[in-house]
Design a protein that fits this description.
This protein is about 35% helix and about 20% strand. By secondary structure, it is of the alpha+beta class. The protein folds into 2 domains: about 55 residues, no CATH class; about 30 residues. The longest helix has 24 residues. The chain is elongated, with a radius of gyration of 23 Å.
Length: about 100
């Protein structure tokens, strides 16, 4: 199973990623990524940098959550909680208004 670990690097103001593949008692560690330029029209298909199985994707999301990242569009459990809190606040306002409480 592929593991992706995240590490906050405050000196470089970035998050470092480590890609590991456990192989029994050994661990294979991916080398740093190398970028290459492909001009438009030179290649019709480029292989993905890497692929993950669904459980490995979930583990990556959990790892990003562990180092402090949250969805930006407000979906998921954090977004649902925010929506529920807003709904409760509006219901309280309606109830107080109906009861004549300021």
């Amino acid at each position: 199973m592929i593991e992706i670990r995240a590490h906050q690097d405050p000196l470089r103001a970035r998050i470092g990623f480590y890609v590991l593949d456990r192989q029994g008692e050994a661990v294979a560690v991916a080398s740093p990524l190398t970028m290459r330029t492909v001009r438009e029209g030179e290649a019709t298909y480029v292989e993905p940098t890497f692929g993950l199985k669904p459980d490995e994707c979930q583990a990556l999301m959990d790892e990003l959550w562990r180092v402090g990242f949250r969805p930006s569009e407000g979906s998921g459990s954090a977004g649902a909680m925010s929506q529920a809190e807003a709904h409760i606040a509006s219901l309280k306002a309606i109830a107080f208004k109906l009861a004549g409480i300021n």
